[in-house]
């Protein structure tokens, strides 16, 4: 294989057209797979890149802007993000073994959703800015300082890697109970963080 072809196969760029069928099934609140801390990835190889591609396609199918491997039942520290799924020129992000380096910028509140708790949207307070180190799909170390929706999405996806769901961080008990009931989820499956 030519060198350029080898490099291209290590890059991740999948069609943003939602597939008719999702390659991977997304687990929902109450499923134990969502509560396991994810394992570090020791080698970034084709298997990991294929998983990232399948996760991106599943995310586009579900109309989300992010997805973490535990949501598709895979216990690995891998997340994918695309804040503009309708924009073909907006980059797709793959983050392997992400680690929070700093948080700052005060706190902000945002109404979050989660593909693992479909139809439930509730306010969550998080740091406004986050600095994260990770490896990209080619295994190279990266560092990013994010704010706005990107910071929000990174923190939400990194929670998934620790077995934490956004509903665990909701402090408005009344809205939480209503939102869960409306969508048929059990309050007992939420592990509220004090
Ligand atoms: O992890 C996930 O379940 C994906 C989640 C990411 C996320 C959304 C909002 C705030 C924080 C994290 C979703 O994509 S849920 C779907 C959703 O809320 C949304 C979809 C398209 C545009 C904007 C939001
Ligand atoms: Zn989620």
CATH architecture designation: Alpha-Beta Complex
Main sheet summary:
5 strands, antiparallel
- The helix/strand series, from N terminus to C terminus, equals HHEEEEEHH
Please estimate the helix content: 10-25%
How many beta-strand segments? 5
Mean pLDDT: 95
Rg (CA only): 17 Å
Overall number of structural domains: 1
CATH topology term: Peptide Deformylase
- What ions, cofactors and ligands are bound? ligand K1U, zinc ion
Form type: globular
Q: Which strand order do you get reading across the main beta sheet?
A: 1-2-3-4-5
Find the CATH superfamily.
Answer: Peptide deformylase
Low-confidence stretches are none
CATH class bucket: Alpha Beta
Structural class: alpha+beta
Beginning-to-end CA distance, first to last residue? 55 Å
Strand residue percentage:
15-25%
Secondary-structure map with pairings?
Layout: H1 3-9, H2 46-62, E1 66-68, E2 78-81, E3 93-112, E4 122-135, E5 141-146, H3 148-161, H4 173-182
Antiparallel strand pairs: 1-2, 2-3, 3-4, 4-5
The structure holds ligand K1U and zinc ion.
């Amino acid at each position: 294989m030519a060198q350029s072809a080898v490099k291209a196969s290590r890059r991740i760029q999948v069609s943003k057209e939602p597939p008719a069928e999702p390659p991977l099934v997304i687990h929902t609140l109450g499923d134990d797979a969502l509560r396991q801390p994810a394992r570090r990835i020791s080698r970034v190889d084709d298997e990991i890149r294929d998983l990232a591609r399948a996760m991106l396609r599943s995310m586009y199918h579900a109309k989300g802007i992010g997805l973490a491997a535990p949501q598709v039942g895979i216990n690995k520290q891998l997340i994918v993000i695309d804040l503009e799924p309708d924009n073909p020129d907006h980059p797709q992000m793959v983050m392997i073994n992400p680690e929070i380096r700093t948080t700052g910028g005060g706190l902000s509140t945002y109404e979050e959703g989660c593909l693992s708790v479909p139809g439930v949207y509730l306010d969550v307070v998080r740091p406004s800015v986050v600095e994260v180190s990770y490896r990209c799909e080619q295994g190279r170390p990266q560092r990013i300082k994010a704010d706005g929706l990107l910071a929000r999405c990174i923190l939400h996806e990194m929670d998934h890697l620790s077995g934490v769901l956004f509903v665990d961080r909701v402090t408005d008990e009344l809205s939480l109970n209503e939102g869960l009931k409306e969508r048929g989820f059990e309050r007992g499956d939420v592990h509220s963080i004090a």
